[in-house]
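Just scan my protein:

. . .
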Amino acid sequence: MPATLSHWDELETPGPSESGPGDLVLSFFSGERPLHGAAGLADWRLYGQLSRLITAGRCAGGSGESLMMPAGPRLPFERIFLFGLGDGSRLHDDQYSKHVRTMRAALRLAGSKNYSVQPPGRATGLIAAKRAAELWLAQADAQEERVTLIDSEGAYKEMGDLLVGQASKAES
């Protein structure tokens, strides 16, 4: 799903027996102000609510921090999960994988099997789109989870062959 509000607005809230966009999974680095990417879009749509939570010290972006909140009527998602990533000066594969494990463990505990996520570090460009998708999908359970990656149009071209392969695996 492209990281644009116009695309998010096209998502419909599902009926009781339908599956919609699910939850919105966001991440940010400590000191990242303003929020970038999907987190920045959600903050904009929520009139700065995420920024106010950060300013109030409810979630400062430290590694391992997490916050869950209802998305409210201004976003088509059910809940928002906000995860801190710590220092944003660099992000290597081991750190990235640790963040993914932490995020996915929290999502499992909350019962979230359908979610949209902008992979950690993509909004700030600290990890390439294809590598971010590879590392996220390597830990995702295609049988149990419905994962929608949020990124730019250019990123989808970069990771296109990987996503086609994952869709084929999920169908079989």
Summary: The chain has a mean pLDDT of 85.
